[in-house]
Amino acid sequence: MNLSELVQKFEDAGQGHVFRFFTKLNETEKTALLQQATEINLAEISSLSLEWQETGLLSEDYSDLAPAPYIQHPASGGDESFWGQASALGEEGLRKGRVAAFTVAGGQGTRLGYNGPKGTFPSTPVKGKSLFQVFSEKIRASSDRYGNVIEWLIMTSIQNDAETRAFFKVHDFFGLNCRHVHFFTQGLMPAVDTSGKILMSSKGRIAMSPDGHGGSLRALVRSGHVQRLLSKGVDTISYFQVDNPLVQCIDPAFIGFHIKERAEISSKMVQKAYASERVGHFCVQNEKQVVIEYSDLPKELQEKLHPETGELLYPAGSIAIHILDLNFIARVGGGNDPALALPFHFAQKKVSCIDAAGSLFSPLEPNGIKFEMFIFDSLPLAKRSVIIETRREDEFSPIKNASGQDSVTTSKRDQSAQHIRWLKTAGEDVNDLETIEISPFCAQTESEFIKYWQALDPKPLLKDGMYLNLNDNLCSKQRL
Ligand code: UTP
Q1: At what angle do helices 80-95 and 131-146 cross, to 10 degrees?
Q2: Which ligand 1 atom is nearest residue 243's CA?
C-alpha cells in the first residue's frame, strides 16, 4: 500500500491525526511511522474502542458460575498412584521429545521498577542467579534427566528483546545449546484515548504497548515456531512466566495429566491463601472452564463458603502455569476463526503523549486505554482442559514488587524454605538453617532430592548460607 492509500485508510477510520506531523518528520522517522501504521489493524482498534465505550465498565453476569473441578495433589488427599501414572506418561513424552518449554518475558515489569528485562533480575537466595539462569539450569537438568533436547521459546517485547538476547550471549546461554533457545517478540497494540483516537507518543511515533501474555499465542504462530516444532514431533508446550523462580519448568506429572486427558490447555492451581487474595479464580461458566480475575469476581463470591464443608467455594487460584497443545495454539493464534480469538481486556492507564499542537505531556490521571490479551482466556476455547493442584510452597513465589508481598525478599525466603524442607524430609537437622540454595542439577523436587541426598557420600557439612551444587559441567551432559 502506498503512502496516500495508507493515509486515506487512517482518515477513513477517523485516525488521520496519526499523520498530522508527517511532513515535518525526517526520512528515518517517516519510515518508522509508516512501519508502525502498516501493522495496525484499524478495524480491530475501532471495534475494541466501541466495545470499551459501550461495555468496558459494565460488570459481568456471574449467575451461572460454579467452582472448577481440579485433580487433588497427593499431599491434600489426591490419589498417589494416579499421580505416579501421570508422571510415567509425562516422562515417556519427554523421552520422546514431545515437549518444549515456553517463557513469556515481554512484560514491562513496572511494579518491580528494575532497569532491564525482568528475566535478568537476580533472584536466588545465595548465588543471586538471574531468573533466566534459574530456568536455563532447570531446563538443562530436565533435558539431561530425560535424555532429550527440550527446546526453549522465550517471548520478549520490542523494548527488551535486544537486551535479553545480549544477556544470554554474554552468559554463554548458561550452558544450553544456543540453537535450542529461541527468542521472538510479541505483538503490540496502540493505546487510544477515551474516544478511541490513537495516541501518539511523539510526532512520529504511535504510543504502542505489548498486547499481553495472551498475545503469545498469536506471536508463537507468527514466529513460525508452531509449525517448526510440530514438524519435529513436538506437540506440547510447558508455559510459565518470567517472574516465578519456584516454577517447575518441566513437570512430568503435569505433562502426563495433560496427555492422558488429551487436553488442549492444562493449568495448575493453588489453594487461595485467603478469600480476597489477588489471584485469578478457576471457575466453570456456561459449562466451560474459565479464569475470573480477582478484580472482576464480586467480593461475595470470592468470600462465599461451601454450604457443607464451610471452606471457600472458589478456592482455586491461578498461578499462570499451563501446558498447551501446539495444534490448539495453531488454531487460536492462527487468527482464521473469529470464534477462537482471545478477547481483549481494557486497562485505563496514564499514557504520555502529544497534544494537537505536538507538545508532549504526561497526564496526572489515566487518559488512555490499553488493550491486552490474557493467556487464561484460551481455557473456554479448548475442547478439553484439565486443572491440577500444586502446593504453593513448592511452586509459586513470584517477584512482582520492589518490596513487600511478592517481592524478591519473599521469593528468596520461599526458595530457601523449600530447600530446607527437602533437607528436613531427608532426615537432616535444619535448626540452624535459614538461607540455603540447592542447584537444580542436584534436584528439582523433594523426591529427587531425597534420592540424591541418600546417594551422596560423603555429605557436606550443612551451614547457613551454603550453596549445594554439583559440578555443573560434570552433572550435566554435554550440550545436547
Ligand atoms: P505481569 O502481569 O506481572 O505484568 O506479567 P508485567 O508487565 O511483567 O509487570 P507489571 O504489571 O508491569 O508490574 C506476567 C507475565 O506475563 C508476561 C510478563 O513478562 C510476565 O512473565 N507478559 C506480560 C508478557 O510477556 N507480555 C505482556 O504484554 C504482559
Answers
A1: 90
A2: 21
Segment 28-62, tens digit of pLDDT: 999 999 999 999 999 999 999 988 888 655 567 89
Retrieve residue 48's grid coordinates: 475494541
Rounded (10°) CA dihedral 60, 190, 116, 377: 30
Q: Is residue 351 part of a domain?
A: yes
Q: Indicate which residue's Cα is closest to atom 22 of ligand 1.
A: 107
Confidence grade of residue 108 (pLDDT, cut at 50, 70, 90) = confident
| Residue nearest atom 1 of ligand 1, based on CA coordinates | 107
By CB neighbour count within 10 A (0-12 exposed, 13-18 middle, 19+ buried), where does 365 fall?
Answer: exposed
d(CA 395, CA 391): 6
Q: Is the dihedral of CA 127, 132, 138, 140 positive or negative?
A: negative
Could you tell me the CATH number of the domain that includes residue 337? 3.90.550.10
| pLDDT digits 0-9 by tens, 412-449 | 999 999 999 999 999 999 999 999 999 999 999 999 99
CB 427 within 8 A of CB 419: no
| Number of residues written out for the chain | 480
Distance in Å, CA 110 to ligand 1 centroid: 9
Distance from the alpha carbon of residue 359 to the mean position of ligand 1, in angstroms = 30
* Number of domain units in the chain: 1
> Facing residues of 270 across strands?
317
Tell me the DSSP string of 249-310: SS-HHHHHHHHHTT-SEEEEEEE-SSTT-SSEEEEEETTEEEEE-TTTS-HHHHHPBPTTT-
- Convert the pLDDT of each residue in 113-155 to its tens digit: 999 999 999 999 999 999 999 999 999 999 999 999 999 999 9
In a domain, 370, yes or no: yes
Cα 269 to averaged position of ligand 1 atoms, centre (Å): 19
Pairing of strands 205-206, 200-202: antiparallel
Identify whether 103 is part of a domain: yes
| 8 Å CB contact between 290 and 379 | yes
Q: Which helix (H) or strand (E) holds 142?
A: helix 131-146
34 occurs within a structural domain: no
Residues contacting ligand 1 via CB (< 6 Å): 104-111, 118, 155, 186, 210, 212-213, 241-243, 400
Range of the domain at 226: 59-401
